[in-house]
# Entry
Amino acid sequence: MPDYSHGPAQTPHRLSFARPAGHWLEALPLGNGRIGAMPDGGVERERVLLNDGTAWSGSPASEFAHGRVGAATAREAVAEARQALAEGDHARADAAVRRLQERWTQAYLPFAELTVGVTNPPGEITGYSRHLDLRTAEHVVRYEAGGAVVVRRTVVSHPDRALLMTIDVASGPGVDLTVGLDSPLRVLGRGRGERLVWLTTRMPSDVAPPHEPDAPSPVYDDDRISLRGAVALHWSHDGEDVAAGEAAGRGPSIGPVLAARGVRHVEIVLTTGTTFTAVGAEPRGDERDALAAARRDLDAAVRRGAAALRERQGTDHARLYQRVELQWDGPADARLRQLAFLFHYGRYLLISASRAGGPPATLQGLWNNSMRPPWSSNYTININTQMNYWPADVTDLPECLPPLFDLVEAVSVRGAETARRLYGAGGWCAHHNTDVWAYTSPVGRGEADPAWAFWPLAGAWLCRHLTDHVAFGAGLPFARERAWPMVRGAARFLLDWLVELPDGTLGFSPSSSPENRFVTPTGPRAVDVSSAIDIGIAREVFTSATALAELAGQPDDAVAGAARAALGRLPGPQTDEDGTVREWRGPHVMAEPAHRHLSPLYEAFPGTGVRPEHSAAVARTLDVRGDDSTGWSLAWKLALRARLRHTERLPALIDLALREVDPAAVGEHGGLYPNRLSAHPPFQIDGNFGFTAAIAECVVQSHAGTVDLLPALPSDWPAGRMRGLVARPGVVVDLAWDDDRRLVEARVRRRSDRVGTVRVSLGDASVEVDLAQGPWTLRPGAGGRLPAVAG
# Structure
């Protein structure tokens, strides 16, 4: 078991350090869905690395800036791949699908840096601490210097679209301060006004990912469209302003700075703006427009005042964060405190990274410090973006889902052209990854391994979140107006992409299984016929299309009818001789038996369709893959073991997810960086979100048509309680368990007006309750019964 006695101090809702951050992965994240901030807690100099969720390279035109694969070329490539697979020639199929590739998606970028220089009173620095409080979303730095107590508080407000930092000096003399702004982007202009400083920037027209090392990056091309941005800052204080001429050169940043002396209280407000308009849409305006947008938000925030800003931010955050809580009934050791913190941290990070009006959370959420980030810090949609949103419905954060739905809608629009051109299909599709411009082509420049570059079912997987949201109680307008059109389009593409196989079943050729490969005489290959995940997703999309057609009042829709008919011709899950789930239609030897992707187990989780007789093959596959892996893969394994109710296997997976990882670590071994962000390595935030969802899956499950209480509590958990989890079809569950992991009491109430009678189960016992009458309380009874009391 890892040693949890070292590292930062933790409570279930707070992470504390006794020194400033020495690395970006020691800084503590703040965000409002648009502005991301990583303050380092410095004493003489506080550096706050800033992100704006809309700060991306390129534009919608970037996908085809260097040409486009034509329909004729694509038809020939697909036909050749199918013929090659029919002849058992995987190498030729591999080469054929490479002809479908474009270049790469664009990158999510760092935006700016706020630097606050502090001239402290002479004397030793003592009593230093910094912490992030998840309940208030506040970063606090405190220390003593020369008899003065300095306290610096920072929040980022969603209601007011602004960052607020206050500095207070208690006792002793005041401090001298400088404030400046800088950016790693191309700076177009800087300015200073009365207690105001600003800068404008341009984002690159192209940024190649690190796995394309021969490509120049970043590229600023005046002939290509790219975003413009701005950051603006205002301060007010009780000290003496230093004149512009005297302040020049004193600040820690290049260009104009603000400076003051003898300050005991200061309020700093910062806002950002860009020419981004919407996911998948063309930018509009120039840097002056971006600055005007930032100034509008800044002026409104300054007029409102620091006290009101903080109150509005606190109320908004608490409204979401306080809905759900995991608690231990007795004294908790360091490991249990860290486990509870990490569960809450996932919800905190999702609230901070994804809110209406901004883009969805990227591979790094809202926080990135690199101009050429790993995998472009984009949306990898063969698991990672999806995992980001696994906790949204089950931990009662539907307010975090609109950015994802906006992305799916934009991808469905642009993906319709991709489906027609590459596959001669109706509907829409997307491949391995996308960006804020809704890129839908295969990537790789004709040179990338199809294991990760060819997979046209990523869009269909994204539809899982639409149908899940409906299943968790979203209103009929959402089902009819948003979910149905997108799921219908995905189903239509799959119907056109299916082929009839020699045995009369329907399948996919060519097909891949993200990002795995199998052994062939010519080397590892990724392309074959009908991967398990492709069939599983098709079964799910066709089932969802049929159900949504009914909700949309279109039961006779042609696509829904065709989907209903196709369901009966899809093969069921297959098992190999070693007892594992077969990953492709034909038997293969895996090139990496412990591969991190668990794609053939899709139907077990996040899907809801695993059959009881198939669970042994799912378990055997997990055994063969092994426990250790990347952070996000550990979270997926934890959720799968919870679905299988393998309570004795959960503690070891949790320990692997909680272990310390050095910021310089490489390789595939997940865990937590000092600031408790999840390691791939490198940093990927999906491991944080996936862990939270997996812990919820241990406590409540609802995929099988009942609200199942305590299905998979880890075998080493002591007495505790969970408040506020949401179960299908829109039921809020509070429950408590004892030291033997037995239910003490549960309370269920409806979250959606669509909910009436639901079945609640505990082991083999179950009871029906009518939630339209109000909440119910349930306690285990004699003889294995589950009595329920209204009220």
Q: What stands out?
A: The mean pLDDT is 95. Residues 402-423 form the longest helix (22 residues). The two ends are 43 Å apart (CA to CA).
